[in-house]
Amino acid sequence: MSVTLTQRQYSRTLTQKKWLLVVHLVRLYNQERHRHIATLQSLFGQIEERTYRNQLVQQKYQGFIPARLWKMALTEAYQLVHRHWALFGMDIRTWGRKRSLTEGQKLYLMWLTAIPECVARLTQGFEVNAPAPSAKWLDGKTLWTEQERIVLERLLHRWARKHKPTHPKPTAQRSMALDQQMWNLRKTTGGSCLRIASVASGKRISLPLLGFLALQGNLRLVLQEDNTVEIHDSYEIRSYVCRGDPRGIDLGQSESFVDHEDEHWGSWMPEFIKKCEATEPQLRARQRLWSQVRELKKLGHHKKARRIVRNNLGTIELKQQTQQLQAEFLTKSRADIRSYITAHTPSVIVTEELGNFAGEVRKMNRTSNSHWRHASFHEGLQILGRRSGTTIVTTPAPYASCTCPQDDCAYPSRENRSGDQFL
To answer: How does DSSP classify residue 420?
Structure first.
């Protein structure tokens, strides 16, 4: 069993020259992707992606971008068309539920619409040539007859001619994909530097990143509005199980977390909390400005409200500060988690599910930085836990600190705890 996980990392603010180079590269990448969509829509089901790509290489195809980049754009276009035909297959299945079909025809309809290539051939008027289902998929059901298949395909041909899908409408995207050969990562004094392929042959664009997170596999670059780039790192993790003992950890404010042996991890946390508290006056000031904007809109002064939002909220500066804090927390907290898992190799880690507060507690955390710290810590715990084969279990936070730890009791009371110690 495997699981796909995604972690995000941010770049520093790019210079105007470097930003224009990245925007130009992303624009050409998406133009190349859009160019292949119409062709693949008509050829889908008749030719495989690899065969189509080899034909372009033999024809010495010249794209807007270098060969490795346009091949990646072609793969994305093929995936988009694949999803498009899969959705059309779901429409056919919905139509079939309203018809009076035999059991064999219903089974064949379910099998046919589950294969996007067969849906494309059916709609385009070609012979379907659906592969035979496996015995596991049939699960003891009787296979359809040849007559049932022929009758159902005629009905579907007739319906598909009237409801033939249009081409997928590509939108202007602000992202692009990179495989492992299109980028490399170097550590620098203030963080790390991601060097990506550019339009010019043999030259790369350097993107300074926040933090020291390790990247692997294919990446996706997403352009932000403040001359920064967000990097998405998605990879597949094969799950296996550690053979250690179950452990419990408690997230703290003066430390990263406290383990089962009452050892405090994260001596850097107090200094980090001071940095977070330095931004809270700005957050409270923004809340007051938002209240003023809402009052102005109620009075009909929309022009003044728009001017306050545009000029006085300091969105770009505050976002950059928050991203720097998030990158620092990611780097240091995941180093602590990795060290703890390596030292104890627990089979299960139990922790509180923090972040989904209600009532007065939610109001207190609304303007603070604790909500994203908890979410970031849990995300790192899930990623590093799955890498090492550790199962992560979260428990509801309410009354967890004052509930009796004995299995046969579990009575919640403030008298059960004194400070950090259970009585």
So the answer is: T
- Express each pLDDT in 189-225 by its tens digit: 767 889 998 888 788 999 988 877 778 788 999 998 8
Q: And the tokens for 246?
A: 């179950």
- Residues 221 and 178: their CA atoms lie apart, in Å, by 8
Least Cα distance to 192 among 179, 204, 178, 206 occurs for: 206
Dist CA 378 CA 370 (whole Å): 12
Task: Tell me whether strands 348-353 and 391-396 are parallel, antiparallel or unpaired.
Answer: parallel
Task: Say if residue 69 is exposed, middle or buried (CB neighbours under 10 Å; 0-12, 13-18, 19+).
Answer: buried
Q: How far is CA 169 from the centre of its chain?
A: 23
Please indicate whether residue 96 or residue 191 has the higher confidence score (pLDDT).
96
Instruction: Please state whether beta strands 257-258 and 250-251 pair in parallel, antiparallel, or not at all (unpaired).
Output: antiparallel
Show Cβ contacts of residue 228 under 8 Å, excluding neighbours closer than 6 positions: 10, 11, 12, 13, 14, 320, 323
Distance of alpha carbon 202 from alpha carbon 362, whole angstroms: 52
Assess contact for 346 and 393: CB atoms under 8 A. no
Question: In this predicted structure, what is the pLDDT of residue 164?
Answer: 75
Q: What is the pLDDT of residues 167-180, one digit of tens each?
A: 666 666 789 999 88
Structure confidence by residue, pLDDT tens digits, 255-284 = 778 777 778 888 888 888 888 877 777 778
DSSP string, 34-97: HHHHHHHHHHBTTB-HHHHHHHHHHTT---SS-HHHHHHHHHHHHHHHHHHHHHHHHHHHHHHH
Contact 340, 259 (CB under 8 A): yes
Mention every residue, 6+ apart, whose C-beta is less than 8 A from residue 332.
Answer: 256, 266, 268, 272
Between CA 245 and CA 250, with CA 249 as vertex, the angle to 5 degrees is 160
Half-sphere exposure of 107 (CA within 13 A, CB side): 17
